[in-house]
Design brief:
The protein is of the alpha/beta class. The protein has one domain: Rossmann fold (3-Layer(aba) Sandwich), CATH 3.40.50. The chain has helices at 5-15, 56-73, 75-78, 92-106, 124-135, 148-157, 169-178, 193-209, 222-229, 231-240, 255-258, and strands at 43-45, 52-54, 113-117, 143-147, 181-185, 214-218, 241-245. The radius of gyration is 27 Å and the shape is elongated. The protein binds zinc ion. Zinc ion binds next to loops.
Length: 263
């Protein structure tokens, strides 16, 4: 009978030498930490009482992750080097839209979201992309982008599934209310009906209440927009958003096409 634990160990070592791991000195050295400030902990001392604060490297990592997510939902904008400086406003309304998106970044989180209205090619989506990208340096932790029609079909698709654990209408609404920044393209593109108007209202109103901004665009303006948005949403439009109706020529078309008489 083995009387002592050390004797038991010695016995195991003698009869089965492979049972023990190699000597600690045989392990390779751990690679040196990437961040010399926090030794890759992600936190550094904030004061003499031992409180900690996030290290700059953690913030840099966070931004890399978000930039990758941003590239995924705005694929054509990420590679083209857009910035507020490269957007050249050609009309007063374009200048107002630019100012609004810059303020969004500077004053994040803002009182309300942004709705940019106007024809195609005015740079609406680009400006909203820049506003979201700029807000990433603040406390934005998550964001989503939906074409409004896609949002409705996504919600409708939940009605036909009986699978356990399936996504429900409520799940989607709750998620879109909770996300830090929501981008909605083509608001009011179809007359969606009372059901869809109600869903959209619930999401936008829930977000406003929690002061989570929505960045939206639409090709419609004036009365047409209000009709397509539905009464309830149209009447609260200015509570939910700072609205700019953008005027001007399609920026993607060469000027000579619009004004062949110009030199
Ligand atoms: Zn660090």
């Amino acid at each position: 009978m083995v009387e002592k634990f050390s004797d038991a160990l010695a016995e195991v070592r003698r009869t089965n030498p492979k049972f023990f791991l190699a000597d600690a000195s045989e392990f390779p050295e751990a690679p040196p930490p990437v961040c010399a400030d926090c030794r890759d902990l992600g936190f550094v001392p904030a004061d003499a009482e031992g409180r900690m604060k996030p290290c700059v490297c953690a913030d840099r990592k966070r931004q890399q992750v978000f930039q990758a997510a941003l590239d995924e939902i705005f694929p054509i904008y990420s590679t083209r080097g857009f910035s507020f400086e490269t957007y050249r406003p050609e009309t007063d309304s374009q200048r107002a839209a630019l100012r609004l998106c810059q303020d969004f970044v500077e004053d994040y989180p803002p009182e309300k979201g942004i709705l940019l209205a106007g024809g195609t090619g005015l740079g609406k989506t680009c400006l909203l992309y820049l506003a979201l990208r700029g807000a990433l340096v603040h406390t934005v932790f998550n964001f989503e982008r939906f074409k409004t029609t896609m949002l409705f079909s996504r919600i409708r698709s939940t009605f036909n599934s009986d699978k356990p654990g399936r996504e429900t209408e409520y799940d989607i609404i709750r998620r879109l209310v909770a996300v830090d920044v929501l981008v909605l393209d083509d608001l009011g593109v179809e007359k969606a009906g009372e059901w869809a108007d109600g869903i959209l209202y619930t999401i936008l109103d829930g977000r406003l209440e929690k002061r989570r901004p929505t960045l939206a665009s639409t090709n419609l303006t004036g009365e047409t927009l209000d009709q397509k948005l539905g009464h309830r949403l149209a009447s609260r439009k200015h509570d939910l958003f700072n609205v700019v109706e953008m005027a001007g020529a399609d920026r993607r078309v060469p000027k000579s096409v619009h004004n062949p008489a110009s030199p």
